[in-house]
Specification:
The structure holds two protein chains of two kinds. By secondary structure, chain A is α+β, with helices and mostly antiparallel strands. Chain A contains 21 helices and 27 strands. In chain A, strand 10 and strand 11 form a beta hairpin. In chain A, helix 16 packs parallel to helix 20. Chain A is globular and about 85 Å long. Chain B is of the alpha+beta class. Chain B is about 35% helix and about 15% strand. Chain B has five helices and five strands. Chain B has a five-stranded mixed sheet, with helices on both faces. In chain B, helix 2 crosses helix 5. The radius of gyration of chain B is 15 Å and the shape is globular. The chains are: A alpha+beta, B alpha+beta. At the A-B interface, helix 8, helix 10 and helix 19 of A face helix 1, helix 2, helix 3, helix 4 and helix 5 of B.
């Protein structure tokens, strides 16, 4: 055996594979009742490449590189590897890989990009491994590899000989890594495109430890921190006398403007946190929602010296208009409210740091912790647990920094736990935003479009390459930032989660104003975009795919032909490389609009795992409805006005409509699904509520405008 | 600290904890049964749902001192080997997204089916209103409960 070659290919030590406490697959591995049984299964693993290990019995272990935040990558990404490897899915075990930048690309759960970025790499990993297995078998048989075929983990040749992957795996790892291995024709896919159950389903349904908060380490202390109660405040002093009396509290430490209580149980740490008496100082007067609103509204009437996009001559078109329609929309701050509150394990010693927990962005987390600790990145390990919801919050790393700092000061392994109140009030929200839309109408045509966006602590509140850029010859998009001490973060479908509602609700109003059918109005605009593209105008979306989903949604919802008493609303939006159109249906019950059905048409390329894709799409739709209907979050003197689910209303089962998902059949490379169904739905329901009630909605939460938020 | 005798999943335990310690943290931190989840701490989200003598109960607001002789069942003890009809239905409908709330959802549903084996859709919705799913798998949860109720 060529040792150098072997080492290059063997990138995981068995200890790394067997350790860590996040060893959950299904089938044969989970069937092992004891640690010894699991160790035996893992003992004779042959590492074919970064993603694939095959043992002598033919069990294929596929590493899932990306963080699993509920978007199903831990199932769908290994499906892609297994497809090209040509093994039966029932012989596959999936394991979560740790952060490993040498072997994996983009270990990020964000931007709905996991599948899109990894599609080729995953297929190549599977196909290359398959070719190595074939080459090893061919060598053994003294035949040409081209005479060999594979089927579900068995290699056969034209002489009628056959051998399993498990039997040849030890030989395959010695083979040269082949280059330019051909990939399957998507028409021949056997695993991709089939409903495949979540690999963690049994562990989830039986309560096995999977999540960050489930992680434990011998000698670990639980840490709960007290942070400034209002944005803009710093810590003056604190009294921990009562805290130290709490049974189980071991230590109280100050770090920056925060105080951590370390205890032998979570409850003791929470009690200790509540018993702290702290004095804070700082000017927070500017950090009230009322003040933010004043600043944002002023910006909506302020021309920008550097517009994000300026096409044609907007000024003249407005000057010559028969009519100008102008509307302003208001989006509040929003906490992410992942059901698993923020947490992280850290064990910092003199020359290394171990981090374990739920993160959507392990590589950046390691970098930030390395800077904090003054360590090199290779002194820090990051293990990813299953994530109990992210929605963008766990793209940030504040909790890992806090955990590392506390562990360093305490010189102990610790698990930092946010209480729900900490999670909702400690910061990093979807920024509050406002939008002013104007269109110039002349001779029953829209002759100019002008959008001004503003919000808190953001780089750009408009999307100048998305629709309707391209649809109007005269178009102006401007953005203004309001600086604030309140911290912000990406929130599922950043910016577009509110911008899409505002834009698509406005277009509904414009269409009605012009006496046009809202669906036909959109179709006409996309045709205008096509014509403008031919004249050289640039934008990011594909006109045919945009029109495709609009027509599919309209057809499936029977647009315009709803039965009596059913009111429809339409919306469409392109984001994260995926096209979505939605029709909402509302009925009136007890004089209030009730959302009954959402029909959702999606073009996301090839659908890898339909059952999970439908779940993900429905989740985005209902999440979008929930926050549009009920999401409300404000500040008074820098202090958040809601801190738990008794004050922040999340959607519940009794408020959920039926959701029908239709995918455009496609063999194109897959695009994202974690976010794109969310942006359009706010407008779909707002437009349907208008159809039902005659009332236009311009702000989240709709329930507040409809007078039903308190119910 | 006082000592409490508890029966959890038919096994007897003794724990030394403060009287006000919620059962949630006794289970998670002291008995290493982490299937029961912390979500809000104020009985608003249902992630911590257990059965107390068969009734769905929010363990995050249930002090250890008031449990007495009542039998506690957690997700780990719902069935011997993960074959409760709801656990199987959860797989059939591939319910979870992130999965964090699902143990609480299953425990609420199991208590419903124990008292009402064939609930209507309306009865399911009423019984499950106390459980939040932030990923919004609600329709799949409802379907899975209907499937389990037909077994």
């Amino acid at each position: 055996m060529n040792t150098t070659t072997y080492n290059r290919r063997s990138f995981f030590k068995v200890s790394a594979v067997a350790g860590g406490g996040i060893l959950f697959g299904f089938n044969m591995l989970t069937a092992q009742k004891t640690e010894a049984g699991i160790a035996e299964v893992l003992a004779d693993i042959n590492r074919i490449n970064g993603y694939i290990q095959i043992d002598s019995k033919g069990i294929v272990t596929i590493m899932s590189a990306n963080p699993e935040v509920g978007q199903n990558v831990k199932t769908s990404m290994p499906m892609i590897v297994a497809e090209e490897l040509d093994v039966a899915w029932r012989s596959v075990v999936v394991k979560q890989a740790p952060l490993d930048t040498k072997n994996f690309v983009r270990q990020v759960a964000g931007g709905s990009q996991s599948l899109r970025f990894s599609w080729k790499a995953l297929r190549t990993a599977g196909a290359t491994a398959r070719q190595m297995l074939i080459n090893a078998a061919a060598q053994k048989w003294g035949v040409s590899p081209s005479e060999c075929t594979t089927n579900e983990g068995v290699i056969s040749n034209s002489k009628g000989q056959s051998i399993t992957y498990g039997e040849i795996a030890a030989e395959a790892v010695k083979m040269e890594v082949p280059k330019d291995v051909p990939l399957k024709n998507p028409k021949d896919f056997k695993i991709i495109g089939k409903n495949t159950t979540n690999v963690d389903i049994k562990a989830i349904a039986t309560g096995k430890p999977l999540f960050g908060l489930d992680y434990k380490r011998e000698g670990m202390l639980y840490a709960v921190a007290l942070r400034p109660p209002a944005f803009g405040q710093t810590l003056v002093s604190f009294d921990d006398k009562e805290t130290r009396k709490v049974n189980g509290v071991k230590d109280v430490i100050r770090f920056g403007d925060k105080i951590a209580v370390l205890a032998t149980s979570t409850w003791a740490a929470i009690k200790g946190q509540k018993a702290l008496k702290a004095t804070w100082t700082g000017d927070t007067k500017a950090e009230s929602t009322e003040e933010h609103d004043k600043k944002m509204l002023a910006f909506l009437d302020t021309p920008s010296s550097a517009p994000k996009r300026s096409d044609g001559d907007v000024k003249t078109a407005f000057a010559n208009a028969d009519k100008v329609l102008e509307r302003t929309f208001h989006g509040p701050f929003m906490p992410h409210n992942s059901l698993e509150p923020m947490n992280f394990f850290a064990h910092v010693s003199v020359d290394k740091a171990e981090l374990v927990g739920p993160t959507q962005r392990p590589e950046e987390t390691r970098k930030q912790v390395a800077t904090l600790l003054g360590m090199k990145e290779d002194q820090i390990s990051v293990e990813m647990t299953r994530i109990g919801g992210g929605f963008g919050r766990r793209l940030m790393w504040d909790f890992a920094l806090e955990a590392a700092e506390i562990s360093k000061i305490a010189k102990k392994p610790i698990q930092l736990v946010f209480t729900r109140e900490d999670d909702m009030t400690a910061g990093l929200y979807r920024p509050a935003t406002k939008y002013k839309f104007r269109v110039a109408i002349k001779d029953k045509k829209v002759t100019a479009y002008h959008l001004t966006g503003t919000g808190i602590n953001g780089q750009n509140f408009v999307r100048e390459t998305f629709f309707p850029a391209g649809a109007f010859e005269n178009l102006l998009m401007e953005s203004h930032n309001v600086e604030s001490k309140i911290t912000v973060a990406p929130w599922r479908a950043p910016i577009t989660n509110f911008l899409a509602f505002a834009e698509q609700a406005f277009f509904d109003e414009v269409a009605r104003e012009m006496g046009a059918d809202p669906v036909q109005f959109r179709l006409d605009l996309f045709e205008q975009a096509r014509a403008n593209a031919q004249k050289g105008m640039k934008f990011d979306y594909d006109v045919d795919k945009s029109i495709g989903v609009i027509k599919l949604a309209a057809e499936k919802a029977n647009w315009g032909k709803a039965e009596k008493g059913v009111y429809q609303g339409f919306s469409t939006y392109y984001s994260h490389n995926t096209y979505v159109a939605e029709v909402a249906e509302v009925v009136m019950q007890n004089n209030q609009p009730v959302i009954k059905r959402i029909v959702c048409a999606i073009d996301c390329g090839l659908v890898v795992n339909p059952i999970a894709a439908i779940n993900q799409s429905e989740g985005g739709v209902i999440d979008g409805i929930g926050h549009a209907m009920f999401g409300d979050f404000s500040f008074v003197d820098g202090k958040p006005q809601a801190s738990n689910f008794n004050k922040f209303r999340l959607i519940r089962m009794n408020e959920v409509p039926k959701v029908e998902v239709h995918f455009v059949p496609s063999l194109n490379d897959p695009t994202g699904l974690g976010e794109p169904t969310l942006p359009p739905v706010g407008a779909a329901i707002a437009n349907a509520i208008f159809a039902a009630t005659g009332k236009r909605l311009y702000s989240f939460p709709f329930a507040k405008e409809l007078g039903t938020q308190g119910s | 600290m006082p000592t409490y005798k508890l029966t959890v999943n038919k096994k007897k335990y003794e724990v030394n904890v403060d009287a006000d310690t919620p059962i949630l943290w006794v289970l998670r931190d002291h008995l290493n049964l982490v299937g029961t989840k912390y979500g809000c701490g104020i009985a608003q989200c249902g992630a911590c749902t257990i059965h107390l003598d068969g009734k769905a109960t929010r363990s995050c607001v249930l002090p250890v001192s008031v449990v007495g002789n009542k039998a506690i069942t957690t997700i780990e003890g719902l069935s011997e080997d993960g074959t409760h009809p709801l656990q199987e239905a959860w797989a059939i409908h591939d319910v979870p997204q992130c999965g964090y709330c699902q143990a609480g959802q299953i425990m609420s549903a199991a208590a419903l089916l124990a008292s009402n084996p064939h609930p209507t859709e309306e009865e399911i919705i009423t019984a499950m209103q106390g459980n939040i799913c932030r990923c919004a798998t609600y329709n799949h949860i409802k379907e899975a409960i209907l499937t389990a109720s037909k077994k």
